Structure formats: structure tokens, C-alpha cells
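Quiz preparation item.
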């Protein structure tokens, strides 16, 4: 395309409102950890509460304007190893019976412990039913202006 052929937009006619420019969308970067394997005491049935069960967790962590993209410095980033350690600790001390409650606990902990604008968490229990590879839940939470979670 030749720049000398681009025409300027026609001036607005008197009496016609010019639409305002759309507000700029905030930039959000996403880091992810997929297939995180932990074990936890979890489940609604008595037989599920006697021994830890395997869980598979997928995380998507949203960051507003990640400084590390420009600085290339871990101090400006969310350390994936620290995220993984936090999730493992939560699984070890879990007392929730529902996957939904466990996922919420993970969301709350990650939003409180890291500079994140949002989290998406999927938690699944593999091989619970013969007719399904896994069962699970996915939640998405954003940091609220008034506090954590939303």
C-alpha cells in the first residue's frame, strides 16, 4: 500500500456527533502451568477420605503489563517454581471435600501471594468413573479493586 494515496478522513459535519474512541483495553499477559500433579485428601464419600487421591491441576495466571517482558529479570516475574510450591502446600493441607472449594482456595492463595490480575484454575480427578477419563471443575477469578478474588 502506498502511503501517499491514503486519504484523510472527511471532517465531521456540523450537528453530527463523532463517536468517541474506544477505551484502550488493559494489556494482560498469561503464564501457565499445565498438568500439575498433586495428591490430596478430597472427596465427598467416606472411602475418598482415607488416603490421598491424585489431582491434575492446570493454571493460567494473568499479569497486567508484565515488567519482566522488558527487563528479562526474574525479580520482575512470577516465579513458576514458587507457584508450584504454593499449590503443592495447599494440596497437602487440604480439608475441602469439593473440587470447587479446593479450586477456590488455590485461587485465593495465588491472588493473595503473587502480583496477579487473574487466575484460571482447572482441577480434575482422573479415573474416578469407568465411563470418564476424569471429572473436574474450572474457575476463573479476577483481583477485585476492593480486595482479593472476584
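Solution:
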Amino acid at each position: 500500500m502506498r502511503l501517499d494515496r491514503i486519504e484523510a478522513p472527511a471532517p465531521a459535519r456540523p450537528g453530527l456527533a463523532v463517536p468517541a474512541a474506544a477505551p484502550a483495553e488493559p494489556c494482560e499477559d498469561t503464564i501457565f502451568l499445565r498438568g500439575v500433579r498433586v495428591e490430596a485428601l478430597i472427596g465427598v464419600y467416606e472411602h475418598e477420605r482415607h488416603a490421598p487421591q491424585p489431582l491434575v491441576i492446570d493454571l493460567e495466571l494473568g499479569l497486567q503489563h508484565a515488567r519482566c517482558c522488558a527487563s528479562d529479570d526474574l525479580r520482575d516475574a512470577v516465579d513458576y517454581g514458587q507457584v508450584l510450591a504454593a499449590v503443592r502446600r495447599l494440596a497437602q493441607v487440604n480439608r475441602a471435600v469439593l473440587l470447587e472449594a479446593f479450586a477456590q482456595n488455590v485461587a485465593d492463595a495465588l491472588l493473595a501471594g503473587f502480583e496477579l490480575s487473574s487466575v484460571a484454575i482447572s482441577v480434575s480427578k482422573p479415573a474416578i468413573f469407568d465411563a470418564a477419563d476424569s471429572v473436574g471443575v474450572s474457575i476463573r477469578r479476577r483481583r477485585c479493586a476492593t480486595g482479593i478474588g472476584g
